[in-house]
Amino acid sequence: MSEARPLWHGTLRLALVSCPVRLLSAHHERNNLHFHMINPDTGNRIRMVTVDAGTGEEVERRDTVRGYEFQKNDYVLMTDEDFESARIDSSRTLTIAKFVPRDSIDSLHFDAGYYLVPDGKEGQDVYAVLREALDQSGTAALSRLVLFRRERAVAIFPHGEGMLLHTLHEEGDINPAADAFDEIETIRTEPEMVKLARQLIDRQRDRYDAADTEDRYEARLRDLIDAKLRGEGLQPEREEARSDNVIDLMAALKQSLGSQDDAAASSRKPRKAAAGKAAAKPAKKPAAAAKTATSAKGRGKAPAAPKRKRA
């Protein structure tokens, strides 16, 4: 059983069957770079102080409560007990409302991802049956739960031996695509250009590799920090020349394909050169064969020289 602290625990319910479940974070904070605010004149850290806006006196964060501003500078104070008393059914129960095709959920709606796992031995058969049914049907289960004092719509997916839960953005949280795309001109594309673009896609088609998500900027920052600790600098990487004005799209696409051909050819040249050197060594053997042929003239037809193997 995972020792990770659950973010939520309750009951997963489908009609009259249910099982206890808990929610675990699917992500963790790795050893990222952390920077502090420093006074450059003294080299000392800056301390952020929580102060009373009216009196200017320092207040310990543990002594504060939350407040809702209903009018300017007037607040309704909310305690932990107030939040607890406002609980609704989704605070402790994941009731599945409906099932939808997995690909029908726009990726824009996905927010955070979590592992949804059984909470103990009880009800694991219900959990397994539901996971298998979701997998075979190609559907996701939609439900709601209160997480971090906010009710969220969620989607539940099968994932290996377990299930994933994704919180979903509300429609009102998402900016309309039409607002972002309204200035894009409607252009009739030429089939030949699309064909060339697809050739580029086919040549660079590959499988997704999680290593592709590595933060290269952080790696450069680490190199810079190490260099500064040694009293050195770090040479900036040379940026590729950028041309924003593509005059001939067809020519640019063809040039891109040509550049890929040149790159592929250059990557193969060392192999051919090595193969050529290997083939050059036995070049002296035919001379030895010629001596044999000369000595055999009086006895009959000379044997043919051995064929050279192709490099």
Q: What is the helix tally?
A: 7
Q: What is the helical fraction, as a range of percent? A: 25-40%
- Cα(first) to Cα(last) distance is 58 Å
Judged by helices, strands and strand pairing, the structural class is alpha+beta
Task: Sketch the topology as an H/E string, one letter per element.
Answer: EEEEEEHEEEHEEEHHHHH
Number of strands: 12
Average pLDDT number: 79
Provide the β-strand percentage band.
15-25%
CA gyration radius, whole angstroms:
34 Å
Low-confidence stretches: 271-311
Major sheet: arrangement of strands: 7-1-2-9-12-11-10-8
Major beta-sheet overview: 8 strands, mixed
Shape summary: extended
Q: Gist?
A:
Helix content is 31%, strand content 23%. By secondary structure, it is of the alpha+beta class. Helix 4 packs parallel to helix 6 (249-280).
What does this structure look like?
By secondary structure, the chain is an alpha+beta fold. Helices cover 31% and strands 23% of the residues. The chain contains 7 helices and 12 strands. The longest helix is centred in the C-terminal third of the chain and has 32 residues. The chain is extended, with a radius of gyration of 34 Å.
Features:
311 residues, alpha+beta, 8-stranded mixed β-sheet, 12 strands, disordered C terminus
